[in-house]
Amino acid sequence: MSETPLNQAQNSDEIDLKDLILPLWKARKQILTIAIICGILGGIVGFLTPTTYTASSTFLPQTAQAGGGLSGSLGGLASLAGINLSSGAAGGEEIPPTMYARVLASEPFKKRLLDAKIWVDGDTTSYRDYLESRTSSGFGLGTIKEYTIGLPGKILGALAEDKKDGVESTAGGLQALSDDEYKLHNALAGKVTIETDKKEGVVSITVVESDPIVAAEVAKVTEEVLQEWIIEHKVKNAKAQYDFIEKQFDAKQKEFFSIQEQLAGYMDRNQNVLSATYLTRLERLQAEFDLVNTVYSELAKQKEQAAIQLSKDTPTFSVLDPVKVPKEKTGPKKSIYVLGAFFIGLILAAGWFLAKNPIQEFFKGIQIES
Fold it and tell me: Which sign, positive or negative, has the C-alpha torsion 225, 230, 233, 236?
């Protein structure tokens, strides 16, 4: 009795299933051995990976709102009529907290953060110098990778640097980052992160470092540098107006003192003189003094108003969770390294023993045909 097509399909499925399971079963010891070796290597990598600590800071930016009362209530209606009730304000542009992560990613901010001073081993140093010293003195997983897997790239990079000798570092007026500076910027991106709660507006800074004290120091200076950057951007307009008025005030003050001394000296030298020439000259000096005095007094008022506006535009920050020196390690998870490497080795070994025979047969067929 011949087999039906359904039985033939079932038999082919059984044969295919056996073809899959049988090679794996025969090579079970080799597969397990390879997986164990990979797990051991993963454990070695986990132990060579430096221990990390995480320090964080959480704060809430607050800005004084210009205008109030009737102006604040009718501002929207007045704007429809083309009237700006707060036109006298010199407030700067608001920076939404959601933009802080982009601020961290910017090159000027990274340079400022790298140049910030931190306290390390009883001495003050820049974060840049600390990262460079750790890179040059550390011998661990990164060094092993650099001189094994990364050795060809290192050789090519050295050759490329030789070719670049004598080339200008600027092009079109733009300053290019050096290779070392570029590496520091990339390292910084992996160590410092800024997250923002869009609903509450709370900003969180997180720093991961191998030293808990350094992690706390960097988190503190990142908070300070970020707040300084926000203040500078927010008060940019008010600060420019204040600086301009202060410059004009100082110049007018010198002129005021000069004309005041001229008037007093002229009156002292001609106390008993009543000639028309004397009176005419006195009136001119007095008129000049009154004019300069009026402008000087007005500039003094404007300077005070600009100082008040500058103070009003300067944002404040409520620290909700200050920086603390972390006590617990946050990485690496050595068990994850071991288990991950074990299962990767298991999958790769199983795949190899499944594909081994078909690959050998394929190449044998090519040799026979040739």
Answer: negative
